[in-house]
Amino acid sequence: MQVEDDTVPQDEEILDRSQVFDHTPHKWRSINDIMAQCNICIMEPDSFEEADLDESWRHAMKAELEMIEKNNTWDLVDRPFEKPVIGVKWVYKVKLNLDGTVQKNKARLVAKGYSQKPGMDYNETFAQVARLDTIRTLIALTAQKEWSLYQLDVKSAFLNGILKEEVYVEQPQGYIQENEETKVYKLNKALYGLKQAPRPGIIIVSLYVDDIIYIGSCSKLLEEFKQDMMQHYEMIDLGLLHHFLGKGVVQTDRHIFIHQKKYAMKLLEKFGMRDCKSVAIPLVVNEKLCKEDGSEAANENEFRQIVGSLLYLTATRPDVMFASSLLARFMHNPTKKHMGTAKIVLRYIQGTLDFDIEFVEGKTTTLIGYCDSDWARNEDDMQSTSGYAFTLGSGMFSWASIKQNTVALSTAEAKYVSAAEATSQAKWLRFVLEDFREEQVEGTPILCDKEPSSSPENKAYQSEISFHKGSHSSKRN
Questions:
Q1: 141-160 average pLDDT score
Q2: 382 C-beta neighbours (distance < 10 Å), count
């Protein structure tokens, strides 16, 4: 029996559907915008078993072991009976660009250094990391000299340093040598996690573990330095400095800007304040906080997270330095009033996301300090708070808000204490600048506000520490 086929041919069906549904995109959108709206969470493996299921993480682990072998970091030997053997573990980290996109997957083999005993496995610890004040000094000096900042990333920086102590580690999980299961590795060089690990390394201008920032007046010398470093050590040339330790760096022909906009946005999203209404100042004028204010107890864990995040933001935002330091005094048993004050600071950040510090090229390298203090503002112990800020030609690069150790008996004494703290910082900054061959021949002026805000010194202080919010924001985005 012949059955009549009433179905439409496949090609005609596809044609008809394409005529009914127009698949032409009506508007092109950036993939970064789409990812930001989707609020994508990048997951990092919690264990070797989980990482071993992904080809990219297997490749990252293989690359780490190849680097270890290439640097002659260890030798496979029989397990010693008289020496302890330290365990190792894999640590997985997704390294991101400043805009949130994935730069690479990084697997690092880490020694379980917490099992080492002082005096037996190591004698001292040491970490070569630059202070943020030093890095900001370097940026300010770069702007003044009209140079450019460059960056190198040292691959497995600790693998370049020879160990003096006799240290043994287990074979890494997933990469145990066949028929050599009972053997261990004797370390010739340091692994991450060892107490001895941070000592090896080289300091060129500014070093933060395995990130190097370098500058210079001669492009030829810069290139020779880079090639020499890359010849002797496994490094990645990151070119012009764009971001460092989570801080954004924008370099233009005449300016250098540093900011933490991306971090500030994530901070607001984390605490549900992304769409909050902004305020003009971070603290209510003349409002005082104390430990016992009569309000109910707040969520201590959330309050600590907010304050900790705010303190990290002060790396480029001195305008929230005092507020963050003030809130940090109430980490134990915070109240609803303390929490409300913290959220006011977040609302201020909402309205100042585009704020950053501007360093103008070609300015004089004259170090100038500004200091001030309140008097007995802390109602719990009647101690005062000092504050100082320093500029080097243009933008502010060093600042602090410090609770004084003693009770001042007058406003004059409180301000003298503040001036003394600023003087101590000035001496250290002069030493750093001298090390950068920018010796301050003349004395460093420190302007202290001795009267209310109408005084010329305070007006100068307010003028110098003001932030820049300009057209460069569009370039940065």
A1: 67
A2: 11
